[in-house]
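pls read this protein:
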Amino acid sequence: MTVTERPAAVNVSQSDWLLCERCHAIVYARRFTSAGRVCPECRWHAPLTAVERVAHLLDDGSVSTLEVAAEPFDHLGFVDSRPYAERLASARHSTGLDEAVICRRGTIEGHPVLVAVMDVRFMGGSMGSAVGELITQTAEIALRERTPLLIVSASGGARMQEGAISLMQMAKTSQAVAQLDEAGILTISLVTDPTYGGVAASYATQCDVILAEPGARLGFAGPRVIQQTIGTPLPDGFQTAEMLLSKGLIDGICEREAQRQVLAQLLSLAGGQVLDSAAPVPEDPLIKDSGRLPDDEPWQSVRRARHQDRPTTSDYLCHLLDGFVELHGDRTSGDCTAIIAGCGRLDGVPLIVIGHQKGHTAAELAAHNFGMATPSGYRKAARVMRLAAKLGLPVLTLIDTPGAYPGVEAEEQGQAIAIAENLRLMSGLPVPIVAVIIGEGGSGGALALAVANRVLMCANATYSVISPEGCAAILWKEARQAPAAAAALGLRARDLLRSGIVDAVIPERGEGTHECHADAARMLREALLRTLGELAAFSPDKLIADRWARFRDFGRLAGR
């Protein structure tokens, strides 16, 4: 199936004004062009040619053509209303391109990248043997040179005129992307409108990070085919980037004006600064002697850990990281708002950050499910941790949850399995992992992000097998006995440091981190730089062995 490109805008007259096809606003042509062909009224992203896309994304003066070549495979001598050879010649004449994809080398804000950019004007951007071969050759060069690969897709699907040969390109290009995955080379997909069929079901959705332009349509079957098959109208926004994001199928929606910056931030992960175990580190702020911690009432610690003004994961990210890019979705079923995951740089060092997110207001708390993650949240975390392993990036987790979400849908979607998979995944991750309990550390929902080489804890945080209220209801048969349960559970930082459950405690000034977020973030930064610096000297095998030994010792009988 192929689709034709929709016109970006039509001339109102021979003047400098254009009519937006989407909202029908009359816009100044120069303003439209300078904004990257984005309507200033409705923000519709009009199509770009492949050449325009390359010029928009890559640094001026950095672009060169890759030495790749391929010819379409007309083994069928296909003829419909016109011979396939004539259609190819017509497409080449009208577009000035040899095929529906162009492959280039360049930089984005100085970061090297290879790009393969599709052009929907060329036979609907359909993928035939030449497109598949050019994509594959580009991936092979990326593999040899260990250079990140960016694919910009725009396609109606497989090229019918080449029969089953076009179908085979899905497998061939998928193998090429898989080789890059195994070699630890970053791949990024930028989905533009439209992307359907064989392209959607291969390289467009197989990259480490999938971004889409606003309104871009992505799907296996086109809407006309779906509607004819099921015989019912399709919902508004069907197959659009906005729907895909809500279903956890893409990492984010990226407006055209922000694409270079976001791509540069992602590319910086591939060749950025690494941790140096010999580098100077800040003065150690960590408390490793439980006797230095105040012997406060356990229930007071619970209340402070739950204080609505304590800094959340997003608050810490604003203070700690440069260039944070949030990655959404589990690529299967949804995007849990109780888990934030993404990548950024801590003092120039790239790392992956995953954390529970609550909020400060009733509306924020409700929007983030009170920090209680669903299975899609834990699967999102697992997906991003695998990316960390692939790129060799340290992982930081920030834990603040009363527990995993206990709803009916969560159980139906495999809450226990999702948590169990994270425990196993983190146990064998070949990169440094530092977990920090910043508020509540509730049960398995917290542990699912805490199988780390080093587990730190803020002084007023808590960490427990169950909430005090839950424990009181089960064992005391009275919820009002929660303070007594808190005392019995040993959930304070003082108790947990003494038992070795946590490795060190980050002090809190005054009444707690809620008094000054900036000060809390400074303390956390110093603790992280010191801890990550220590782990930088560990080999991947030693990191795994260290993590295994840490958890193996809990509950071991004395003398064994």
